[in-house]
Amino acid sequence: MLRYILQRGMLALAVAFTVSLATFFLLNFASDPAYSIAGEDATPEVLAQIRETYGLDRPAFVRYLDWLGSVLQGDFGTSYYWNKPVAELVSDRAGATITLALSAVMVTILIAIPLGAWAALRPNTLVDRFALTVAVSAQAVPNFWLGLIVIILFAVMLPIFPVSGDDSWRHFVLPAFVLGASSVPAVMRLTRTGLIDVMQSDYIRTARSKGYRGFTLLTRHALRNALLPVISVLAVQLGQKFGGSVITESIFAINGLGRLALESILGSDIPTVQMLIFVFALIFVAMNLLADILNAALDPRIRIG
Known about the structure:
By secondary structure, this protein is mostly helical. The chain has 15 helices and no strands. It is elongated and about 85 Å long.
């Protein structure tokens, strides 16, 4: 098990390093950092002075190594736009994004797993068709459109929840639903497929012969084994929520990392954008690593050398 974790961990670090390398060079070649600091109306003399002051006149690879060394020491640089340490900006906004991501995954679990189990217990019926229709609809609806619809319904027509902000748990209900709905199709279909396969197993037939039926059979015997792949998928979905919250946080005016990323892009704040992409990549890689470990630990069919 330890060898497997080390192998997957080394692969995760390689992916994170590649993402940081690509992000640094793409952002620095897409625009001149000196313009981001001085503005587009700056004179050539001012730009030259800024490049010399910030070390932007050095080769790009040397600047990347300096940036990577600073990151490894905990120094994420200084924001051009806010003139504050990037680490401070990230720490101030991280709490809202973590709350939103965890809430969104909880919404996915509460909708997708019962819906998938309901469909699996009645395959090829109207119930099954209804569940698949809900899944396909949720996958086809874009987040920005769904966000506007729920705002109109539950914040304007029926003023139940706040429109924007992140001051209380009520502010996270609508954005969590919007962000979590996009993951419902994958988790629902995986739950349905897994349960259909499990319900045809020999030990399920044995449990039925002992008198287990309905909800008891589902919870005590079938669901536990059917949810093994679902757990690993949910870990990956959690990683996606951190980096995929830009639109949702912007619609509901939540001061999280996603909204910070959008504001940094609009303000040409290269250090902040660069660090946020790196953080999102690390989280996604970590969640994929966690999914691999959970899948290997929970599934007895996988042998780990």
